Amino acid sequence: MNVLFTLTIACYIASSLGYQGYVLFQRRSVYKVSSTLLWIGFLCHTGFIALQYFETGHIPVQGLHETLSTFGWAVAGVFLALQIKFNLMVLGALVAPLASLSVVIASILPRPYVELDPLFRGLWRTFHIGTLILGLAALAIAFLVGVLYLIQEKAIKDKKRGFFFRRLPSLNLLDSMGYSCLITGFPLLTCGIITGVIYAQMVHGRFWSWDHKEIFAGITWLVYAVLLHERLTVGWQGRRAAVMTIVGFVILIFTFFLRFLG
After folding, report:
1. Last residue of a domain, which of 90, 109, 128?
2. Alpha-carbon distance 69 to 64, whole Å?
3. Pair (105, 121) in one structural domain
4. Alpha carbons 60 and 4: distance in angstroms, whole number
5. 103 and 23 part of one domain
6. Which of 69-83, 133-147, 229-243 is the least confident region?
7. Are residues 91 and 202 in the same domain?
8. Residues 136, 97: one domain?
């Protein structure tokens, strides 16, 4: 296994444990160490993916093992970027384990050699896949924020207001971050689908083939489009938006795995 990838796994796992410790003990020093480890892991992961790209000439998404690795990198990167604005420290306790799980599974999955057709190389395909993966990562974080929102809402309604109420941020902050993830992820998802449709025409001579994967991709896009429309025009927020975000991501992840089921 590549040294950079090994360091990535080690840093992601250590960061995950650190974030759990922060949630339990609320020590800012623990958070800083965890965040630093996640940054180091992300930089190692970036170097590893860059090496793969230069060696093969394409973004590493050939097979489930490469795709999961790239997804884990995107989740970590999007989270670190959002942290600059929101500083939602407790969210790392969910994001870092998700990135860790992605790279650990990627490391143990078989790596069959795939000879990539020259048609599938190039910047257009890189842009298509890149926007899809980044969009998926942003919407995955929106899903995690939605879960935290529902947990905090329940904690507030509970008169005892125990463990989670003291550790989770306000509902307004969670709703605001969920919305930011949505307006980041949805345009990227849209760009990925549009470039994919155009790419299909370039390679296969047709824009749309009514394949089951394409149908579910369209359904996923419609769910998020409705959610974003309702948030912008009707003012959907809070619990309703959180539930819709969770439903949308469940459909999205199902569509994602359809690609590898044939």
Report:
1. 109
2. 8
3. no
4. 15
5. yes
6. 229-243
7. no
8. no
Q: Which two tokens stand for residue 199?
A: 């790419």
Query: Where in the sequence is the domain holding 153, given as residue range(s)?
Result: 117-262
At 140, list the tokens: 């995955």
**Dihedral sign, CA of 2, 107, 138, 199?**
positive
Are the CB atoms for 154 and 75 separated by under 8 Å? Answer: no
**pTM of this prediction?**
0.87
Distance CA 43, CA 82 (A): 16
Taking only the tens place, the pLDDT of each residue in 156-171 is: 887 666 666 677 888 8
Are 210 and 88 found together in one domain?
A: no
Other C-beta atoms closer than 10 Å to the C-beta of 46 total: 15
Positive/negative CA dihedral, 255, 260, 261, 262: positive
Structural domains in the chain (count): 2
Residue 232 corresponds to which tokens in the numbers above? Answer: 């912008």
Q: What average pLDDT does range 84-101 have in this prediction? A: 89
